[in-house]
Structure formats: structure tokens, C-alpha cells
Design brief:
Elements: E1 10-12, H1 22-33, E2 43-45
Parallel strand pairs: 1-2
Length: about 55
């Protein structure tokens, strides 16, 4: 379990995400879809198709 400091927002993506995009592709999704800075200190969680992988 990773402790999350108070004040940090956790954003959960709905549905499944193509995890082959890697971190560069996921950060681009954060910028384009959420209009957020992926380096802002908040946590953005994506789920793979099988539900066994989260990034």
C-alpha cells in the first residue's frame, strides 16, 4: 500500500486503458482529456483491459 499525503487528489480513469501507451502516452491522456498537468503532484490511476494491471 502506498500512503497518499493529505491534499493529494487521486484521479481514477473509468473503463480500461491501453497500457501499451506507457507513461508518455498516459501523461498525454491526462493533459488532453483532463486538462491537467501530469507533474502537478496528484495521482492519476489507469486500469488495463484485464483489470490486473494499474498504472
Amino acid at each position: 500500500m502506498i500512503p497518499v499525503p493529505s491534499g493529494v487528489k487521486v484521479w481514477l480513469a473509468t473503463g480500461h486503458t491501453d497500457m501499451r501507451k506507457g507513461f508518455p502516452g498516459l501523461s498525454l491522456m491526462v493533459q488532453e482529456a483532463l486538462k491537467r498537468d501530469p507533474m502537478c503532484g496528484h495521482l492519476f490511476v489507469f486500469r488495463g483491459r484485464g483489470g490486473q494491471c494499474a498504472s
